[in-house]
């Protein structure tokens, strides 16, 4: 049997066993590792793709960032170097061949540590790279991921070996064709490094008015430079980024609390309920009341 196919099949069996063949996301005894299983096509889901690498071993999935579509399948991975609001959907899965994947979360500090310890020759920054990319798993990366998931069968080894194998996985990804997208987030003074401060500010204050001059000062950039670098990395403007966060938060509140749409509109930063309703409908395809009714029906 082909070595890469053998590795993928081994990981498929591990995910199936540790997810107990139940659909959904499954946290593990390794805090940075989450397993995913889904035996049918899903509806599009709005959410924030956190800083992580998602490795797929069976089935197919799509992620939309602004107007960009990213499709990935078995033996491929999608990596996000920053937190990004996206729409995701499993597009190929069945009871016989469920969608199976795992997500490894990481921090900028871990990326910096790998670069420093391995003495990787980093790329000179030409301009900021998109914070989301799809890559293929080569044999060395597959082998490292297999050993990482195997630790779930040996919990006593996790404290020592999980950090080491995490470094190896990040090292393999950084060495890939898109590694510069991870490098750029830890290069002190680079455009991407400074944009992360702007992104963090918006995330922590999305319900407050966004002042572009203040954001540029936080990023230590001119306003034109802020706009250019922000769009290079996130595929959207700061205002669009904030809008996605506000509307996703509003949807979550409407689903989880017996709250009126007008009240939620004010809580997430809108001054006009009618403006909120228009933007909500534009993003989710239905008015707040209709959308939440539909979602609750689907979850019954």
UniProtKB/TrEMBL annotation:
Signal peptide: none
Superkingdom of origin organism: Bacteria
Keywords: Transcription, Transcription regulation
InterPro entries for the chain: Homeodomain-like_sf (IPR009057), HTH_AraC (IPR018060), Tscrpt_reg_HTH_AraC_N (IPR009594)
Sequence ranges assigned to domain HTH araC/xylS-type in this UniProt record: 196-294
Pfam families assigned to the protein according to its UniProt record, in alphabetical order: AraC_N, HTH_18
Gene3D superfamilies cross-referenced by the UniProt entry: Homeodomain-like (1.10.10.60)
Protein name: AraC family transcriptional regulator
The species this protein was found in: Paenibacillus violae
């Amino acid at each position: 049997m082909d070595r890469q196919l053998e590795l993928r099949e081994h990981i498929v069996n591990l995910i199936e066993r540790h997810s107990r063949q139940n659909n959904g996301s499954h946290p593990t005894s390794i805090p940075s590792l989450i397993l995913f299983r889904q035996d049918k096509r899903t509806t599009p889901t709005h959410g924030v793709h956190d800083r992580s690498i998602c490795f797929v071993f069976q089935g197919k999935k799509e992620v939309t960032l602004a107007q960009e579509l990213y499709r990935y399948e078995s033996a491929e991975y999608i990596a996000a170097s920053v937190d990004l609001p996206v729409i995701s959907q499993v597009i190929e899965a069945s009871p016989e061949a469920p969608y199976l994947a795992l997500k490894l979360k990481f921090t900028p500090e871990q990326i910096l540590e790998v670069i420093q310890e391995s003495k990787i020759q980093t790329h000179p920054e030409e301009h900021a790279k998109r914070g989301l990319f799809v890559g293929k798993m080569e044999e060395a990366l597959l082998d490292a991921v297999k050993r990482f998931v195997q630790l779930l069968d040996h919990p006593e080894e996790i404290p020592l070996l999980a950090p080491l194998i995490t470094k190896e996985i990040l090292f393999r990804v950084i060495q890939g064709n898109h590694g510069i997208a991870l490098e750029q987030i830890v290069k002190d003074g680079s455009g991407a490094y400074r944009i992360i401060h702007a992104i963090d500010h918006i995330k922590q204050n999305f319900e407050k008015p966004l002042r572009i001059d203040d954001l540029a000062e936080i990023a230590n950039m001119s306003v034109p430079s802020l706009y250019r670098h922000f769009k290079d990395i996130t595929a959207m403007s700061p205002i669009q980024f904030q809008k996605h966060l506000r509307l996703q938060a509003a949807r979550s509140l409407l689903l989880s609390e017996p709250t009126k749409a007008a009240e939620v509109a004010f809580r997430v930063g809108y001054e006009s309920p009618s403006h909120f309703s228009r933007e909500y409908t534009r993003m989710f395809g239905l008015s707040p009341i209709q959308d939440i009714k539909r979602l609750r029906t689907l979850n019954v």
